[in-house]
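Possible regression after last week's pipeline update?

I re-ran a chain I had predicted before the update to compare outputs. Posting the input and the new output here so someone can diff against the archived version. Not blocking, just want to make sure nothing changed silently.
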Amino acid sequence: QQDARPGDAVGVGQTGGIGTNNKGILPYALVDSTAGGSGISFATTDGTASAIVRPLSAGEQATTLAVAANVALTSSAVMGSGISINSLQLGSGNSLTISGGQTLTVQSGGILATTGGATINGGGPVTAGAADLIFQAVGNTTVNTAITGSGGITKAGPGTLVLNSQNFATGNVNIGQGTVVLGGGTNTLFAAVLVG
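New output (post-update):
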């Protein structure tokens, strides 16, 4: 539960309204709407006049890759052409494969892997541009493609983040919780500062 004052929590990325799949999120915050832990979602807020921080609703997430959307994949998917989305949530055991030469841009920086683990594969990079990519690894997350951009990489959540490729994000690397495995060799990260 977030104790927020009006104006404290501002959505990042897209600015869609309540009920739209391009609703801004809080990529650094997760909300679980169930007692058993199966309702994990990125947090959002209903605007500066509201002190309520809540999970994204079903109508605020697309279940397939869609431009500018909060994407919650419930099965594995292949990205055939470059796309810019707001956030990415990978369900248990799912993967996203990026076709060669294509770029996945995550505008808010938020990538969530739920329990059971998830994988991002491919021949094209993942970027948030100037924003940090924020990996919320509730389950283990493996990234088998490059991370680029002038933003950094933030790792949160108890799961393990495995980076199996050279990464060219030039911002700071922040490890808030869990483990980061550099599986891409001695040149896995080219970060400005490692914080953790």
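Follow-up from reviewer: compared with the archived run. DSSP finds no helices and 18 strands in the chain. Marking as no regression found.
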